[in-house]
Amino acid sequence: MLSTIFKAAFLIVGLNVIAASAQTSNIFDSNFVKPRCRVIIDNDFSGDPDGLFQLVHHLLSPSVDIRAVIGSHLNARDGFDNSKTQADNAAKQALEIIRLVKPSSNIPVIAGSNTAMINDSTPVKSEAVQFIIKEAMRADTKSPLYVVCGAGLTEIASAVLTQPEIAKKITLIWIGGPEYLDLAFPPPNYSSPEYNLNIDINAAKVVFNKSSISLWQVPRNAYRQCLLSYAQLLYNIKSKGEVGKYLAGKIEAIMNRIGKFGLNIGETYVMGDSPLVLLTALQSSFEADPSSSRYVIKLAPRINDRGDYEFNDKGRNIRVYDWLDTNLMFSDFFAKLSLFSR
């Protein structure tokens, strides 16, 4: 009798394990979720580690077809990486992440320019610029193309200057720019120019002042909403396998480094690049759009030489996000990382 009960119990447990295993694999199985948009990821992966979290999240999102990952430069005096090879270093960091998450992937990883544009009329020349142009000009797909930038705009600005026709074929999602004062006030002791805009002011001038590219902007007041607590980092990320440990280690290294200078950043960290995933992979099922977040339509301002906004009555309409669904964004990342770690 006991033997029969134990056999039945083991059978039930076994079936539950099989069911759990099947459920775990579903999100990564193309039979359940298929790509519905193309994405080129452009970020300064040798800088603030928030871009590494964004890259992992995108790699774990089966609804996007990642066409390439571009490593971009920082401001020449940036404390994260003040070398002369910032874009090369960024590409190496991106490649390290891809090897952790998708070791058999053939996603191209390309180093962008290691320097900013010299003015707002002369594009940089790089393999990354050529890739953006080539992908935008494809005629064999109707899948929408998003270029998502979590740093400066050097590559996309140079691509538009080199081949203006691509502007009508791309949606640019950019994390950067200061607050619009009719929507929000700057934080205490704010930096000016804003961090990402200051990486390449000339590139921002091209995108805002000269191009017609469709732009979804996530300015500072919006990306600062993306706060991850240290408790969440430990519970939902560090405990989730090799990838989770890797990501948590990057943040803890920053916390340790900052602490040596006597600075206390508290128990949160801004994952300011993660909206790039929210606004692409996590769009609504029908009438696809980032429907859980809020934006306003504004005339694109003119960017001046200081990196400030100036009113431009001839500016095109752009989306400016002022509220982000961080609950969906972080919950989805935690769930995907947990499923992947199993």
From TrEMBL:
Descriptive protein name: Inosine/uridine-preferring nucleoside hydrolase domain-containing protein
Any matching Pfam family: IU_nuc_hydro
Keyword Thylakoid: no
Keyword tags: Glycosidase, Hydrolase, Signal
InterPro entries, per database record: Inosine/uridine_hydrolase_dom, IUNH, Ribo_hydro-like
Leader peptide range in chain numbering: 1-22
Domain Inosine/uridine-preferring nucleoside hydrolase: 39-286
Gene Ontology molecular function: purine nucleosidase activity
Gene Ontology CC entries for this record: cytosol
One GO BP: purine nucleoside catabolic process
